[in-house]
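User: Can you predict the 3D structure for this chain?
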Amino acid sequence: MKPIMHLKSISDINMFLQGVVKHPLVAVVDFSKFDEKMEEGTRLSCDFYSVMFKNYCVNQMKYGRQSYDFQEGNLICIAPRQVITLDSEVEN
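Assistant: Here is the predicted structure, written as structure tokens:
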């Protein structure tokens, strides 16, 4: 099992995704612009609230220790210190 990559700030997530910091408190990330898949089993945790609209994602997402059925077009709200796991399984 891989260690959890912990993002402490919006600047951290922008550096992780190689984006530009436009505001210190808010980030909008368009995952459809990323061609690469993240490595299988990548685990992320943040110190901030996250709201994601999963309309396009190359990786399969798992929340915490449970595998959930995140189909296209879901709104996902995550509290601080929760863990998201990204797998490279093909979505059906």
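The chain has a mean pLDDT of 75. Residues 4-87 form one domain.
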